[in-house]
C-alpha cells in the first residue's frame, strides 16, 4: 500500500490513518514540524513493511530528525528510501543521520538537498557512508552549502562504497580544482556510478578533461548533468572525447546554459547521429542559432540516432530553422519529446513543424511551443495535428497571443474523439469568458484532459 499526502496539514484523525501497513509514505509539503516526528518514529518502529518515506518541504528541523532517527535505528526498521529535502536541517542533524547510515544496511537512498548541512556536516555523513554496514546507492546533496573542502571526504567515501550508483552535488560552490579532484577519485573508485549531477558548481572548461576521463572509464555512467556551468565550446570539445569513447554508454546528457554556440553543434551532431545509447539531451539556453539547429536536425535524420528527447528552449532559433526541424520530425521515428519554446518560430515556422508532425514516421508525444511568437494564424494547423496525431498527448502553447480566435480552434480540436491530448498548458493567454466556459465544459466532457492555465 502507498499513502501519498501532499500540501495538507495533519489532524489527529488523519494521523491515525497512517498507522497501517503501508509500504510507501509520502508527506511532502504537509506543514509538519518536529512534534510530528515522534508519531512518525512510532510508525517506522511498528511497521516493518515501510520502505519509502518522503518528508520534503516540512519544518522538521534538527530536533525532528533526532526523533525520526530513533525509529530508523530500531531493529524492525526496513526503510530503503529517505527524503528530507528542504526540512530546515543543519550540520547538527548529520551526526544522527551518520548513526543511521552506519547501523541500517537496508537504507539505499538518502536525499538531503536544500538543507544547510555545510561541509562540516557532510563530512560527518561521509563517515557513516564509509561504515561497512552502509549499503547506500543514491546520495543527493544539492544546495547543501558545500565548498571545495568536501571533496577529500567524498572521495574517501567513494573509495569505500562500491554500491554507490548516484551522486548529485548540484548547486554547491565546488569550483574547478575540487571537481577535478572528485573526478580523479571517481575514476579510481570501484563504484559503478550511473548518475553524476554537477549543475551550477562553478565549473569551466578547465574541469572538462577530468569529467571526460570519468566518461571514458565508467561505462556504467548513463546520466551526466553539467548544466549552468560556463564550460563553453572548448569545454564541450573536451567532453566530446569522453562521450564518443566506445566504452561510454551515456543515455541522458544535460548541457543547459553552458555558453555553447553553433560551433559546438558539429560535435553534438556527431554524438546524436552515432551514439546509439543517447536518448535525451538538454541544450536549453545556449546560443545555438538556426545554423546550429540545422546541424542537429541533420543528425536526427541519421538512422543510427536513437534520441527520444531534445530540449532546445531559448536557443536563438527562428522560422529559418523550422523546415529542417520539420524534415527531422518526418524522418526520425524515435523522437518523442521536443521542447522548442522561447524561440521566435512564428506562425510560419509552426505551420512547417506541423507538416513534419503529420508525417506517419513522426511519433512525438510532448511538444512545447511556449513563447514562440504564435498567433491565431497557426492554430488551424495545430488543431489539425491535435485531432489526427494520436501519439500527441502533451502540448504547451503558453505565453502566445492566441486570443479567442485561436483558442476556439484549439477547443474544436480537443472536442474531437480522435484527439488524444491529455495535458494542454496555456499559461498567460488572454481569452474571453465565453472561451473560458468552453474550456471548462471540455474538462467536464473529457475528464482525461487536464488544462493548465
Structure description:
The protein is of the alpha/beta class and 453 residues long. The chain folds into 2 domains: 1-145, Alpha-Beta Horseshoe (Leucine-rich repeat, LRR (right-handed beta-alpha superhelix)), CATH 3.80.10.10; 277-452, Ribonuclease Inhibitor (Leucine-rich repeat, LRR (right-handed beta-alpha superhelix), Alpha-Beta Horseshoe), CATH 3.80.10. Helices cover 40% and strands 11% of the residues. Helix 10 packs parallel to helix 11 and helix 11 (289-300) packs parallel to helix 12. The two termini are 33 Å apart. 48% of the residues are buried.
Give the radius of gyration: 25 Å
Beta-strand portion reads 5-15%
CATH first level of the largest domain? Alpha Beta
Shape descriptor reads globular
Class by helix and strand content?
alpha/beta
Helix content: 40-55%
Supply the CATH architecture of the largest domain: Alpha-Beta Horseshoe
Keywords: Acetylation, Cytoplasm, Leucine-rich repeat, Nucleus, Phosphoprotein, Repeat
Organism: Drymodes brunneopygia
Protein name: Ribonuclease inhibitor
InterPro entries: Leu-rich_rpt (IPR001611), LRR_dom_sf (IPR032675), LRR_RI_cap (IPR041302), NLRP_innate_immun_reg (IPR050637)
Amino acid at each position: 500500500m502507498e499513502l501519498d499526502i501532499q500540501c495538507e496539514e495533519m489532524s489527529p484523525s488523519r494521523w491515525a490513518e497512517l498507522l497501517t501497513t503501508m509500504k510507501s509514505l509520502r508527506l511532502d509539503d504537509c506543514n509538519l514540524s518536529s512534534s510530528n516526528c515522534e508519531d512518525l518514529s512510532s510508525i517506522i518502529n511498528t511497521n516493518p513493511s515501510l520502505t519509502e518515506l518522503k518528508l520534503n518541504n516540512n519544518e522538521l528541523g534538527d530536533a525532528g530528525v533526532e526523533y525520526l532517527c530513533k525509529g530508523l535505528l530500531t531493529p524492525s526498521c526496513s526503510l530503503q528510501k529517505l527524503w528530507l529535502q528542504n526540512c530546515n536541517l543543519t550540520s547538527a542533524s548529520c551526526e544522527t543521520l551518520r548513526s543511521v547510515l552506519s547501523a541500517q544496511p537496508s537504507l539505499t537512498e538518502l536525499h538531503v538537498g536544500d538543507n544547510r548541512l555545510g561541509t562540516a556536516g557532510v563530512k560527518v555523513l561521509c563517515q557513516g557512508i564509509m561504515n561497512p554496514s552502509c549499503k547506500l546507492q543514491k546520495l543527493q546533496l544539492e544546495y547543501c552549502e558545500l565548498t571545495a573542502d568536501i571533496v577529500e571526504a567524498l572521495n574517501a567515501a567513494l573509495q569505500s562504497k562500491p554500491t554507490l550508483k548516484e551522486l548529485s552535488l548540484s548547486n554547491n560552490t565546488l569550483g574547478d580544482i575540487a571537481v577535478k579532484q572528485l573526478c580523479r577519485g571517481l575514476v579510481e573508485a570501484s563504484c559503478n556510478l550511473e548518475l553524476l549531477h554537477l549543475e551550477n558548481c562553478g565549473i569551466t572548461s578547465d574541469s572538462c578533461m577530468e569529467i571526460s576521463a570519468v566518461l571514458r572509464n565508467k561505462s556504467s555512467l548513463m546520466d551526466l548533468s553539467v548544466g549552468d556551468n560556463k564550460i563553453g565550446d572548448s569545454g564541450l570539445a573536451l567532453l566530446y572525447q569522453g562521450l564518443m569513447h566506445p566504452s561510454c554508454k551515456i543515455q541522458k546528457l544535460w548541457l543547459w546554459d553552458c555558453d555553447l554556440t553553433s560551433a559546438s553543434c558539429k560535435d553534438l551532431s556527431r554524438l546524436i547521429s552515432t551514439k546509439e545509447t543517447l536518448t535525451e539531451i538538454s541544450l536549453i539556453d545556449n546560443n545555438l542559432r538556426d545554423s546550429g539547429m540545422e546541424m542537429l536536425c541533420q543528425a536526427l535524420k541519421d538512422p543510427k540516432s536513437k534520441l527520444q528527447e531534445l530540449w532546445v528552449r531559448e536557443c536563438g532559433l527562428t522560422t529559418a530553422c523550422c523546415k529542417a526541424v520539420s524534415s527531422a520530425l518526418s524522418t526520425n521515428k524515435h523522437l518523442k519529446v521536443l521542447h522548442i519554446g522561447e524561440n521566435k518560430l512564428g506562425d510560419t515556422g509552426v505551420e512547417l513543424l506541423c507538416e513534419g508532425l503529420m508525417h506517419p514516421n513522426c511519433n512525438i508525444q510532448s511538444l512545447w511551443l511556449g513563447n514562440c511568437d504564435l498567433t491565431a494564424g497557426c492554430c488551424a494547423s495545430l488543431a489539425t495535428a491535435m485531432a489526427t496525431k494520436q501519439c500527441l498527448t502533451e502540448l504547451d502553447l503558453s505565453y502566445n497571443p492566441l486570443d479567442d480566435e485561436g483558442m476556439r480552434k484549439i477547443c474544436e480540436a480537443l472536442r474531437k474523439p480522435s484527439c488524444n491530448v491529455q495535458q494542454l498548458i496555456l499559461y498567460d493567454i488572454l481569452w474571453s469568458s465565453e472561451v473560458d466556459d468552453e474550456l471548462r465544459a471540455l474538462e467536464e466532457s473529457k475528464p482525461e484532459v487536464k488544462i493548465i492555465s
